[in-house]
Amino acid sequence: MAYDVIVVGGGPAGLSAAQNVRARGRTVLVVSNPLEENPLWKAKQVDNYLGLPGVSGAELLTAFRRHAEDSGAEFQEGRVLSALRSGEDWYVSIGNTMAQAKAVVLAAGVARGKKFPGEAELLGRGVSYCATCDGMLYRGKRVAVLGWTPSAKKEAEFLEGIGCEAVYFDKPRDCAILGAEKVEAVRCDGVTEAVEGVFLLRPAMAPGDLFPGLAAEGGFVTVDRNMETNLPGVFAAGDCTGGPLQVSKAVGEGLIAGQKAAAFASSFLERL
Amino acid sequence: MRSKLVVDYVPEGEKKQKNFNTLCGLEVTTASATATQNCDLNKTKEENKMALKHLKTAEFDAAVGEAPLAMVDFWAPWCGPCQMLGPVMEDLAVRYEGKALIAKVDVDEEPELARRFGVMNIPTVVFLKEGREFDRKIGAFPPAVYTEALDKAL
Ligand SMILES: Cc1cc2nc3c(=O)[nH]c(=O)nc-3n(C[C@H](O)[C@H](O)[C@H](O)COP(=O)(O)OP(=O)(O)OC[C@H]3O[C@@H](n4cnc5c(N)ncnc54)[C@H](O)[C@@H]3O)c2cc1C
């Protein structure tokens, strides 16, 4: 499907961006995991969101989401795996589907946690980030699924369904992926399992893994005052651009990114 | 009729098709009914498909061995990143026609080939000279990543 703007991440920054894209009359798709998996959902009390002292994180998120939905933003549940620009369009892959847009707003929050030993080295030799993509290549094999979200469990079930033997690790802290030429085993929190594949399903991905060539510093996306990144048509907002890691700041940056992304998409229409 | 401006701003990947449409537009206004029917708007799409070869296991070695330079995209229809790479490969197939063989292999239909090349993630794009692999890219990347690898070997 083709949109004017695609927003990656449905937290405060992404929802604010989406609502503001709609306010400028442009179409927008928000791609994110379920609202209950957003980190803010667990916050019992948020006291520094102006005008709404004492509101809970879940209440705030629900209100943000409803506002964005009512404005006409579309939603797709899933994880963005990668994005690339060809011609004047950004192509964004979401699980086993794809969407395209003129502009993208990256509002993916902070990617907590570093890569595990062996993860980068064995990518393409047993390490995978997409069960629906690569699962078929592991039919009849024993694989490990390292999951940090409830949706990750569903992906493990998918792998079982197509004939993999899946060992599930729930929110492991410390892992190492072992093997010389290809994956032979995985060790998480002291437990070692012999497997031929390891699927790592994190709630958020490092921005540079999503957008090859994206400028970042200390794990945070580099942006200017227009929330524009170094890549044409890519804007970023919220926690992913750096601190303070707070809701008001995310919502404010989302507004700028949404407006600028809408303007970027509009510039193509004006030229026609 | 379309203004010149429209054609100028057609994205790179769509240029061929859009120009063709414009051409057809001209024919429609000037030529007879039969000529109009012959003007097939889908032709450039067909051409793209012809430039991009879909290889089966049986024909793979001959096709790739004969080519001084080949780029093979191991993919499957149920993979999002592969779908994303699809238009890029179609575009590159047209741009490198006569210079390199640009091909796709469906890993679901040709599991032996996928196994032989040790493909464990899709998309995986393998570069070969006279059938011998010299580079591979795992995942979907912008077109420049592929053109760079191809141009270095040309
Ligand atoms: C327990 C707790 C209490 C907090 N209390 C407060 C408080 O009192 N006041 C305050 O101001 N702030 C508070 N915060 C911080 C606040 O939650 C964040 O600053 C805010 O949520 C940032 O919004 P965001 O939209 O940038 O990112 P997030 O809210 O993190 O949203 C990003 C979303 O994008 C998703 N995502 C990431 N990558 C992808 C991908 N590749 N594809 C699809 N989706 C993706 C993520 O899973 C996530 O759901 C608290 C945080 C926590 C955890």
In brief:
Helix content of chain A is 26%, strand content 28%. With 272 residues, chain A is of the alpha/beta class.
Could you explain the architecture of this structure?
The complex is a heterodimer of chains A (about 270) and B (about 150). Chain A is α/β, with parallel strands linked by helices and about 270 residues long. Chain A contains 6 helices and 16 strands. In chain A, the strands form 4 sheets. In chain A, strands 1, 2, 3, 4, 5, 6 and 16 form a 7-stranded mixed β-sheet that branches. In chain A, helix 1 (about 10-25) packs parallel to helix 6. The two termini of chain A are about 20 Å apart. Chain B has about 150 residues and is an alpha/beta fold. Chain B folds into 2 domains: about 1-50, no CATH class; about 50-155, Glutaredoxin (3-Layer(aba) Sandwich), CATH 3.40.30.10. Chain B has a 5-stranded mixed β-sheet with strand order 1-3-2-4-5, sandwiched between helices. In chain B, helix 6 links the parallel strand 2 (about 70-75) and strand 3 (about 100-105). Chain B starts with a helix and ends with a helix. In chain B, about 35% of the residues are buried. The interface of A and B includes residues 94, 136 and 182 of A. Bound molecules: flavin-adenine dinucleotide (FAD). Flavin-adenine dinucleotide (FAD) binds near residues 42 and 48 of chain A.
CATH superfamily of the largest domain in chain A: FAD/NAD(P)-binding domain
Low-confidence runs of chain A: none
Number of domains of chain B: 2
The largest chain-to-chain contact, stated as pair and per-chain residue counts, equals:
A-B, 36 and 36 residues
Overall structural domain count of chain A: 2
Structural class of chain A: alpha/beta
Radius of gyration of CA atoms of chain A, rounded to a whole number: 19 Å
Strand content of chain B: 15-25%
Low-confidence stretches of chain B: 1-43
Which term fits the overall shape of chain A? globular
Q: Helix coverage percent of residues of chain A?
A: 25-40%
Q: What's the level 1 CATH class of the largest domain in chain B?
A: Alpha Beta
How do the helices and strands follow one another from N- to C-terminus of chain B? Answer: HHHHEHEHEHEEH
**Distinct ligand kinds:** flavin-adenine dinucleotide
The CATH first-level class of the largest domain in chain A comes to Alpha Beta
- Average pLDDT rating of chain B: 75
How would you describe the shape of chain B? globular
